[in-house]
Amino acid sequence: MIQHAPRDPDYATRVRASFERQLFMATLGARLVRVEPGEVDLELPVRTELTQQHGFLHAGALASVADSACGYAALSLMPPGAAVLSVEFKINLLAPAAGDHVLAKGRVIRAGKTVTVCWGEVLAFDGTTERLVATMVGTMMTVEGRGLAD
Amino acid sequence: MIQHAPRDPDYATRVRASFERQLFMATLGARLVRVEPGEVDLELPVRTELTQQHGFLHAGALASVADSACGYAALSLMPPGAAVLSVEFKINLLAPAAGDHVLAKGRVIRAGKTVTVCWGEVLAFDGTTERLVATMVGTMMTVEGRGLAD
Amino acid sequence: MIQHAPRDPDYATRVRASFERQLFMATLGARLVRVEPGEVDLELPVRTELTQQHGFLHAGALASVADSACGYAALSLMPPGAAVLSVEFKINLLAPAAGDHVLAKGRVIRAGKTVTVCWGEVLAFDGTTERLVATMVGTMMTVEGRGLAD
Amino acid sequence: MIQHAPRDPDYATRVRASFERQLFMATLGARLVRVEPGEVDLELPVRTELTQQHGFLHAGALASVADSACGYAALSLMPPGAAVLSVEFKINLLAPAAGDHVLAKGRVIRAGKTVTVCWGEVLAFDGTTERLVATMVGTMMTVEGRGLAD
Predict the structure, then answer these.
(1) D135, closest residue in chain C (CA to CA)
(2) Of these four, A30, C95, D17, D103, which has the most CB atoms within 10 Å of its CB?
(3) What are phi and psi of D38, to 5 degrees?
């Protein structure tokens, strides 16, 4: 994988504090389980409150955790004081998502001054089996000086 | 707009029943407000439980309602007994989503035998003002004979 | 449709001059047929040199003209001296592209300071019939002060 | 990487023969340089005929070779007699593409009965330096019994 150097030594604290402010993540039940430069993982327990009509996790729930994982992977490489906004993302649903929990991994492919491109994967875990259920590509923007918190 | 003829006369009942089974929509607080052939609208009240770190609606919440609106627009044109699955979608976030509620509109661009392509828009309403906050393009698949409910 | 006001009164001249410098457009045989604020159309005659293995226009040829139409629709709204770069785009292929020629239409959905989002359509014409063969959504970036021509 | 087992022992011959029929690849000057199960690489020499207004390779030229690499990676895993069609793809442009030549790599992420999802990368080579200039995610469809050649 690509090695990234953080521009903010406090990147992990900053990502964790911002994640705590994403009330939607608490509503979903997602937890931040890994923060490294350019790499963030979220874990989401499977619950019936998050399902679509066939009893699988809703594509939107998968997209939500993958987007946050990608966004925070991007934020982990941004300079102090900058905020991150999602410009766009695309998700491919590869297999029905069920099991115990899913893990959403966000990884920075390219960190530019304004635009950061991220790759996301969502893996579903059921006991000892693991399955790739979705992939994401997203474009994130560095926003400075607009009075937004991280 | 494109005029579509439904292949199932009971399309509206079928869409409404399937929507009721999407427990994630109830978790979000989304309501089905319009079902026409190839056209479905969902309404989502803005609540702090759905926000990201800056207090706007989370991109994943917008993606969730836009995906369901697109998926049900696709299902409304499918033959009886067929189920709909999201293959992939892309969302562009155009402006921060805040206000009283958002309306997610799903429209079928092309309904094929296997693949249906949909266009989605999310509008945010604040008192009397209205703003386009997101657009979606999604690919939906008709699934028959796999024992999936609609 | 959305009405856009150009920030550069010479937008049309600028778009035409830039299009002339896109040597790839000449290689494809594409012509600029319409330039309005936020709206650009390109015409591409169908030739066997542009086909894929089944004799239809290659998806890449369609993507090329749709991307240029979108990029120039974006440029038509940018201030004097700014250049346009494609950040990303997504194309859906709706039907095989054949016939006499195709028309690629680029339309600005939202013009921001840095990021412009465009919608593209490719229509195939065969005698008097017309068919929507592809749709695009693309993100374009305004680049200033990097020494790039328009 | 994921290991794939081809369902057609003659997959390489079939991919090569189909590539020869893609006249657009000859127009661009692209060559097929690697065919393995689920993995196809194309090489494209940089030429001024393929450039956009700033002298870099046009995004559409990059999309064209990435789409063909992805499509043939998908075809390499399809059963005898099946044809491949691009349903949709998304490309992110990460850096200006210049140099001697580019290499487009197509890799299958998931091969389903009807839908195959591929990942593509385009690398630009300039002397001894190498740079990732674009990434693609594409959805390909297996088409059987419609009288299409591979």
Answers:
(1) C88
(2) A30
(3) 80, 10
